[in-house]
Write a structure and sequence with these properties.
The chain is α/β, with parallel strands linked by helices and about 300 residues long. Helix content is about 40%, strand content about 20%. The strands form two sheets. An eight-stranded mixed sheet has the order 3-2-1-4-7-9-8-10, sandwiched between helices. Helix 6 links the parallel strand 2 and strand 3. Helix 1 packs across helix 2 and helix 1 runs parallel beside helix 3.
Length: about 300
């Protein structure tokens, strides 16, 4: 007997293979048919939001393998679930909170985090690729996770109020628009700025005092050519709360390894600068080691 996740993937995949449009476009059509009730997958019991997300995710991953777009990448579930656990702990005393993803892509990271958290969430997101926004929006409708989207360059002015929580799998590389880059403190004196640096600055500009920003960053973030600009910026405009190294096994190439950087926006009531949590995520297949690691995270949040 197939699981709900397999049935959802099969429903979408069968529809997409029967059409001549781009696979990712056909996923949107299949999801819209599901929403309208004209065609629906075979589901057993009470289907969960995570089952829906994972079923759609499998189809999107297949579609991305057929796509020539190099920026069509998805944050691994294991990383999303870890961020979800941290956000759940950071917001456990809030009945409602706001969350923002400035590079939302297909929405998989954002929805993984939202599904992991209880309480009412007001979400906003930015993505420049219209196809990815449409994918993310139809997924959000099926998950009943409302998100307000802006289709634009996230490094342009944003009509988004400051939020309690920001998350972002940072787009890595150079930002080509030097003229717009001059609006940022992290724009270097010569050459192109690192887009991932500017995304950090832009995100912190849209985080409330006392709010947290969780970034998936290149492991060499603080050792790169432009890190000499990043260090003083972070010292002045944020509080570094944690740097968590992710297992190299999560990445095809060790040179593409990443970490989680957690920043907090300074706030008037802050009494002292807390110690920075430096940690390394164990092998995620080792349940005992992961349980101890998550316990360490919980103690850190509580303190």
């Amino acid at each position: 007997m197939k699981t709900n996740i397999e049935n959802i993937f099969s429903f979408i995949d069968t529809y997409t293979e029967s059409t001549e449009v781009l696979y990712l476009e056909a996923i949107i059509e299949a999801c819209e048919l599901w929403l309208s009730g004209k065609q629906i997958p075979e589901l057993s019991g009470d289907v969960t939001k995570e089952e829906i997300r994972r079923g759609i995710q499998l189809a999107v991953l297949k579609g991305m393998q057929q796509s020539a777009q190099p920026h069509h990448q998805m944050t691994p579930d294991s990383i999303g679930m870890l961020l979800g656990h941290i956000v759940e702990k950071l917001t456990k005393d809030k009945e409602t909170f706001t969350i923002f993803d400035p590079a939302v892509g297909t929405g998989n990271l954002l929805y993984t985090v939202m599904n992991a958290v209880e309480g009412e969430i007001v979400a906003s997101a930015v993505e420049i690729d219209e196809l990815l926004v449409r994918l993310s929006a139809v997924t959000g409708e099926l998950l009943q996770q409302p998100v307000s989207f802006l289709i634009q360059d996230a490094l342009r002015p944003l009509l988004i109020d400051p939020v309690d929580i920001a998350i972002c799998d940072l787009p890595v590389g150079f930002y080509p628009d030097d003229e717009n880059g001059l609006n940022f403190k992290l724009m270097p004196a010569t050459g192109h700025a690192y887009a991932h640096h500017l995304f950090i600055e832009q995100t912190m500009n849209h985080t409330k005092p006392g709010g947290h920003a969780l970034f998936i960053v290149p492991e060499n973030l603080f050792d790169s050519e432009q890190s000499k600009n990043l260090h003083p910026f972070l010292k002045e405009h944020s509080i570094i709360r944690a740097v968590i190294q992710l297992p190299e096994s999560l990445f095809k190439n060790a040179s593409h390894a990443k970490s989680i950087l957690i920043l907090r926006k300074p706030f008037p009531e802050m009494k002292a600068t807390p110690e920075v949590l430096l940690a390394k995520v164990p092998n995620m297949k080792d349940k005992h080691a992961m349980a101890l690691f998550l316990q360490k995270i919980d103690i850190w949040v509580a303190e």
